[in-house]
């Protein structure tokens, strides 16, 4: 199969019109690429007529920038196998992949596919459905946000990246082309070798952190509570240990690099990292992604209980997930 190469203008289909899919589609569209957004049928007419309202907070430059705009991409509600795309970006929740991947495999033609988002062990299932060489992975580490009325609220951070990588850890031509595409679109790409453990690491951190946030009542209150910050670090340590002992490779960016430090050192570093913009972004993101993160948290608990792992901190937050569900 011919891998895509960076062109002055690329034709890109984004599968998934949530926060991540819409934000990345918008940034690539602003960079001059032909972007087609695949949406649910009920949104097709509305987005075709009125566009998508976007409110953004951007910390990529020297000055924080606020922007409101209407994004008017071409929208479709189905894949057409006769229409070739230079790249298909799949940005759906991990639990939606089992429905999405067979459909993509059947109707995507020979286009390269970038899975952009959280996953746990879904890559093994993807491998059984799609031929090797058809896909690679990415993680939108520099974008957070939530759905809003008739659109989205999104946040861009200058101190993080869009992480990209091939399943085999090699640097391919399409990986370089994707990096160039993201770079020209202001999406701060970084190639990882391999990328999957870093994606899982971030997911584990979110699963271990959401419980303390629910207990606090908001991310702002959580970020101001040194005791809860410490408990979140200990819960993350337990979750990472459960994953590794279960044979799942996990790694991660901050705060994982400092998890081995004593709590009296880790907690101030965490507290400092949660500036007001980050707090607002994570508050929106955690609430928006609650079903996905709750599922991952419960999966970690199940794994730990099967192997009799110590989960003193991680398991203590289960009641807050149950309360939220009710």
Describe this entry's structure for a reader.
With 326 residues, the chain is α/β, with parallel strands linked by helices. The chain has 2 domains: 11-192, 3-Layer(aba) Sandwich (Rossmann fold), CATH 3.40.50.720; 198-325, N-(1-d-carboxylethyl)-l-norvaline Dehydrogenase, domain 2. Helix content is 45%, strand content 19%. The chain has 12 helices and 12 strands. It has an 8-stranded mixed sheet with strand order 5-2-1-6-7-8-11-12. It has a 4-stranded mixed sheet with strand order 4-3-10-9, with helices on both faces. β7 (113-116), α4 and β8 (135-140) form a beta-alpha-beta unit. α6 (196-216) crosses α11. The longest helix has 21 residues, at 196-216. The model has no long low-confidence stretch (mean pLDDT 91).
Number of strands: 12
CATH superfamily of the largest domain: NAD(P)-binding Rossmann-like Domain
What is the helix content?
A: 40-55%
Domain count: the total is 2
Rg over C-alpha atoms, rounded to the nearest angstrom: 20 Å
CATH architecture of the largest domain: 3-Layer(aba) Sandwich
Overall pLDDT score: 91
Would you identify the regions where 5 or more consecutive residues have pLDDT less than 50? Answer: none
| Spatial gap, N to C terminus | 49 Å
Total helices: the number is 12
